[in-house]
Amino acid sequence: MKPEDISQVKNVMGPIATARGLPNAFYGDPDAHAQETQLVFHNNWACIGFGKDAPNPGDATPVNHLGIPLLLVRDREGTLRVFQNVCRHRGMILVDEPTNIKGVIACPYHAWCYEMNGTLRATPHVGGPGKNVDDNIDRTTLGLIEVRSHVWMDVVFVNVSGEAPAFEQAMAPLLQRWSEFHTQPIHHGGPESSFKLTVQTNWKLAIENYCESYHLPWVHPGLNSYSRLEDHYHINEPGVFSGQGTVVYNPKLDDSGRSFDNFANLSSMWDTGAEYISLFPNLMLGIHRDHYYAIRIEPVSQTETIEHVEIYYVNEAMCAEPMEDLRTKNAALWKGIFEEDIFVVEGMQAGRAAPGFDGGKFSPAMDEPTHTFHHWVASQFVGQLDGASITKAE
Amino acid sequence: MNSCPTFTPLTPDDRTALEHHILEAHSGPDLPGLARGYRRGGDDAFARGEIDAACFLFTQAYVFALKAGLLEFAEELRAVLMHHGREA
Q1: Percent of chain A with pLDDT over 70
Q2: What pTM was estimated for this model as a whole?
């Protein structure tokens, strides 16, 4: 990163009235991306997928998390674990496509076999042909390397460094904010409730576009016809999440009056309320009285991002065949809205190629959620930039 | 417990047939078929007094039994290997 970039990072940390956004390097520079991978993703709780990706006992699903090969494994008791998808022998990838493990996870190279809990069970011929033991091979020290993980509302999080605060502590403000929802069961809507969008942009632009409502009248005029800008409010939880809420959520997916069941025992604010939150670093969430969605933002590179969208409902009946048409309409509605955002996140990415762009001037009235995210990203670099005298902001 | 299996050696033709069966099972792969096939080959090697070859084939059978989730069969094979000091 250049000295002027470092200086700009310091500007991000200031009050919104005088702050600028993150510098161009954060949106295209490979070195900045590499630093960000460690400081922003691996040191925190990042989303890598969903429980629905490995729904049944024995399911094993490989995931590439910013270059790290990981394996989601659901054991016989139903617990989901995350391991490095790597054999302790020669570093071979263990599972290269989603599968159901009948017995053990066997390396395709020399057939070292691991239990679903990662324990090394067998080391065939390790001491010579037909000799499966060797004094220098201690199986108890050679299990799969487990990555610290947590599942919340079917979202699978990992903390690669292992040093972040406990998930419940790190995410306490969200757990409290949505306490009426996250303790209730959720059910994935099925194939039509799962889609992904590949966009040519840095992952952060997807996050920052999602957390603000300022763009709604211009980018989503259809949405604005029934959910106006003034019906929205900002959500700010510095260090954890930011976003927007609406007070006029009132879905009409079906002329005959059919609708999805609601979560149980919600307070009245959710009768017409809905909230949309960017949970740092890479998860976008939407909560409504009758459904919930989560979007994993996968940084493929510093300039390409995949948005993995998964929609959930409140009970099995909402996920059954009679409601398929409504689920399809709901998914199409959201997909249309998210597609409307593509030109802006790709346009902002293209704009970052302008030399001397200063990160952008925030509107103190409208861009607070965006600044909260920029501030959080910048704060992850405190003390990490050579020559920078960045101090932790309040 | 099959720690000391008693088995009549296969005829050359039967051995050839078993090799074909194992190769066919590999192409599936038919994991239970592989476990059974290698086990049969191991029994044959034991019957001929070829302990190292037998333990090699029992190891193959053991791995495929583990992969197939045939845990009782796997334990049976493991017991034979342990008896010969080949498994922990």
Answers
A1: 95
A2: 0.93
